[in-house]
Write a structure and sequence with these properties.
The protein has 357 residues and is of the alpha/beta class. The protein is 36% helix and 14% strand. The chain is built from twelve helices and twelve strands. Strand 9 and strand 10 (295-299) form a beta hairpin. The structure holds pyridoxal-5'-phosphate.
């Protein structure tokens, strides 16, 4: 740390991304990426002709992508905002909507970035609300709570989800505050609250291309909500980084949205693999939370989470382990890979249980 850093930021503990090892080839099931490549149209389009145009600035309105998303989700273009990953969308939303009273709340166990943004944006009254004993979110905790709300639905790293009706109650009873619903994983079987957008001007849905659309490396996310909220997000963006979506990423996004068949095929493969993997893990004695996401959150009575994570890593399989908070330290989060990758995971797990369990 230099002596020039603002004291305001000195205490921030930055977000710790999952390991992205560049050395050896792992069976990589640790950061919820899609195991399938981007849609074929993406791969065809990012060619020499497009790359040679990188000397020109990208479209600050992200027009073609917004149009394509509007068509896909049956919204008006003015109801959609695009960001450099949904992390950036979330940052703009925190910046725009949470500063007014600096009161925000989110589940204590959820996407780690919410806590980091709360610190970064100086939200001195950020409340982390505990989960229930079964690791689910109690929607009643957020009903009428009189502050901004951020909820991942399905939640991470649990994979558990709320119904659209439960979300609606939270949105409806907090009319003075924006409710941000992070639907990063909703395509894998959760219930979206997209239908509510026309009805409430305080609902902002955040989505990403990183998981269900196989574009984690392209960095693309978006938000959907009332036109007034989208205007505010654009105000943030045009005051910070107007060309936030690069040319190649925008084209990749357009092609990914166009190919509905490929998208749905990938999703159904992953959901099928998820259900099969959950069953196999349970047969081995694991407790597996009922997931609506592209990962499983699981623990075994005879195996500490940390030990299981390490033993898998030694055998070339990467999963995610969270040492904190203690209530989830016995779990590991396993991204759903291809059936072949899951076969390796299950095989290595069996081996570990024999040796260490
Ligand atoms: C992965 C993830 C994100 C971030 O996605 P990017 O678009 O890659 O920035 C946001 N929220 C949740 C809950 C996630 O799991």
């Amino acid at each position: 740390m230099s002596r020039y850093l603002s004291s305001r930021f000195a205490g921030i503990e930055p977000y710790t991304p999952g390991e992205q090892p560049q050395d050896m080839q792992y069976v990589k099931l640790n950061t919820n990426e899609n195991p399938y490549p981007p849609a074929p149209g993406v791969i065809r389009l990012i060619n020499e002709a497009q790359t040679s145009r990188l000397n020109l600035y990208s479209d600050p309105t992200v027009g073609p992508l917004i149009q394509e998303l509007a068509r896909f989700y049956k919204l008006r273009p003015g109801q959609i905002f695009a960001g450099n990953g949904s992390d950036e969308v979330l940052a703009f939303a925190f910046l725009a909507f949470c500063d007014r009273e600096r009161k925000v709340c989110f589940p204590e166990i959820s996407y780690g970035f919410y806590k980091v943004f709360a610190r970064l944006f100086n939200l001195d009254d950020a409340r982390a609300i505990p989960l229930k004993a079964d690791f689910s979110i109690d929607p009643e905790d957020y009903v009428n709570c009189g502050r901004n709300v951020v909820i991942a639905n399905p939640n991470a790293p649990t994979g558990l989800s709320l119904s659209a009706q439960q979300i609606e109650r939270i949105v409806k009873t907090n009319p003075g505050h924006v409710v941000i619903v992070d639907e990063a994983y909703v395509d894998f079987g959760g219930e979206s609250c997209l239908e509510l957008i026309g009805k409430y001007d305080n609902l902002l849905i955040v989505r990403t291309f990183s998981k269900s659309r196989s574009l984690a490396g392209a960095r693309l996310g978006f938000a959907m909500g009332a036109e007034s909220l989208i205007e505010d997000l654009n105000r943030m963006k045009f005051s910070f980084n107007p060309y936030n979506i690069n040319r190649l990423t925008m084209l990749a996004g357009v092609e990914a949205v166009k190919d509905r068949t490929y998208f749905e095929d990938c999703l159904s493969k992953i959901v099928k693999t998820r259900e099969e993997s959950a069953l196999r893990l349970k047969e081995m004695g694991f407790e597996v939370l009922p997931s609506k996401a592209n990962f499983l959150f699981a623990r075994h009575p005879a195996l500490k989470g940390e030990a299981y994570y390490r033993a898998l890593k030694q055998r070339g399989v990467l999963v995610r382990h969270f040492a904190q908070p203690e209530s989830i330290a016995d779990f590991v989060r396993i991204t759903i890979g291809t059936p072949e990758q899951m076969e390796v995971l299950l095989q290595k797990t069996r081996e570990i249980l024999h040796q260490e369990g």
